[in-house]
Structure formats: structure tokens, C-alpha cells
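USER: Please consider what follows.
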Amino acid sequence: MKKRTRWVLVIVTLLALSLGCLPSPPTIMESEPTPAPTPTPQPTVPPVVLAPPEGALADLQSQVEAVYAAVGDSVVNISVTSIGYDFFMNPVPQEGMGSGFVYDTQGHIVTNYHVVEGAKDIKVTFADGATLPAEVIGADPTYDLAVVRVDPSEHPVKPVALGDSKALHIGQFVVAIGSPFGLEQSLTFGVVSSLGRIIQSPDRRYIGEAIQTDAAINPGNSGGPLLDLEGRVVGVNAQIISPSQANAGIGFAIPVNLVKRVAPQLIETGTYKHPWMGVAPATLNPQVAEIIRGAGYDVPDKGVLILTVERGSAADKAGLRGAEREISTRLGRIPVGGDVILAINGEPIETARDLIAYLETYTQPGDTITVQISRNGEIMDIPLTLGERPSQ
């Protein structure tokens, strides 16, 4: 009997221990609802309003506003329709846009050649929204300039004043007005970033004395004016450098002094007469010069090597000489024996691009220039009267 009682006690004890190992059921405690927090009043902060600009800054703002007010009516949007061709050579209408500015009271408007190139239909929209048909009066791909005309009896035209691009200086404030991405009458502001740049023209020649600016220029600005703070045109916005085809802070304008020379001739004759020497130039660099010297010719390290001289040309009449023969080198065949151009009118010429840009920017047919050359080591100054470039 005692033994059985002992076992019963053991079993009861084990059951008690095992039950003690089980987790206790969660206790549900009822609590009183928590009252909603009372919002703490926040101090009222008035909006920050900056004081209007004063002094020089106020003057600058007023000048920019005054330029837009004075010139806005003279800047136009140009819409063009041209004919392209699809994969199957079917004609397809194509639309483009650009900007321009009123040149005179006869309704002539200056823009870029590439804006109106191949245009079959041109429409000009003024600041007040009036739209008129226009026709191309003259165009020149080398300078990327064109003149279109509207009928001034159909809408008032207000010419814009032309400045002097030679009087510009780096850091000078400038304003661009045009229709970037079709957004008409848009103004951007910046500075002249550099002067004397050389840019490539639509016919793959070169335009010298181009103005570099950081005033935002985008597609649609082409042909519009770059202005100084007196509202005078100092350039025609033409190109940008950008991997995305949008403004990246590097834009170029054709100098207005070139416009002054070209536009009257485009209006009068429809074309522009370009100067012509009649040589095929090639840039001479130290590596090529060393090879040529190894062939027995005394040439400088830098300059423009004359490859050929066209018979009857200005260069031929002046006595310039082209290459005598070709030599085979590790770089290929190199013409040797020709004169090397070093300078024109005292201006150093180091590349073929320099030569073309100088002639196109500073000379005209009939001008007599002094060409400094090296002829087998002898430095010579040769007078040369420029001819007119043959039509393409």
C-alpha cells in the first residue's frame, strides 16, 4: 500500500512538473482608451520675400528687360516645310523651325542657311502671333546665312540695330532671343565665353571669328539674334556642342560684322562671291615635316603645305608652287616639294583650317594679300590678288 502511494505521488509530481513547463496562456489585460494627443501649436512662419535687387544688379535686370521690350517685336519664328523621301523613295513632307530677325524696312529677315535649306514653304510668325508667307531671297552655305522676305505691307516690320562684333570682349553680357524647341519669344542670358572661334559651315568649309557663349541655345534658336545689353545684334546664333542636341553651355554665333558684309549681297544678287586662291592645302605637322626633311626638302615644323596649284588661278599667277612628286612612307604617300604657307598679311597660318577661315572671314575677291611662304628653307613674301571662287 505504501509502495502504491509512493508511485502515485511520483506520477502526480511529474505531471505537475510537466504542466509547469508548458507556457502560460497570454494574459489579456483590459486598459482604458488612450486619449488623442493634443496638437502643439506651431509658430506661424511668414513666407520669405527677398528684397528687390538694388544697385548694379537692379541695373542689370532693367537692362535685360529693356532689351527684350525693345527687340522682341523684331525677332520672328520661322517654320519651314521641305520634301524628304522615305525608304521606298516616296516624297514625304518634313517640317523644321528656326528663328530670325528683321533686317530692314523692306521686310528682309536674316536667318541661318540651314534653317531654310531645301524649303518648299516658309512661314514667318511675329511676336503678336501674326503669320506671313516668306520667300528665300538669297542664301550662302559657307557662311550659314540666308535672307528671307515677307511683304511689309501685310504686317509692320521693325528692324533691329546691328552692333560691332569686333568690339566684343570675353565676359561681356549677352542675350539670345528665339524659339527653342518651338517656344517662341524665349530669352536666355549669358556671357561671351570666347572669341575668334572657328566653326564648320554646312558646306564643310569654315567660319572664322565665331562668338562662343553660354547663353542657352537650343534647336529652334538657330538664326535668332545674339544681342548686347544695348539691344544691338552682335551675332547670329548658329550651333551648339552637345551630345544630347540640347544646350550644354557651349553655343556659337556667326559674327554680325560678317552679316553686314554678306546680307546686302544676298539681297542684291541672291548669292555671295567668295575669295579664292586656287590651291589644295594640307596641314603640316612636325611628324610629317621630319619625313619630308628626310627626303631632302627643308620645311618648317608647322604651316600649310601646298599640294597642287590650279592652272590660271590667283596662286598660279602669283607664282606659288605645288608638290613636285610623292614619296612612299610609313604614313602612306606624301607629296613633297611644294611651298609651305606660313602667314597671310602677317597673321600666322598653321593649319588648312586657319587658311580657309582667314580668307573667308577677312578677304574678298579682288583683294591683294601678302602670302609668306617657305620654299625649301627660303622665306619669301609674295603678293597675291584673290580671285572669285568658282561655282560648285
About this structure: The first strand starts at residue 75 and ends at 85. Residues 2-21 form the longest helix (20 residues). Residues 168 and 192 are 8 Å apart (CA to CA). The chain has three domains: 74-149, 165-269, 275-388.
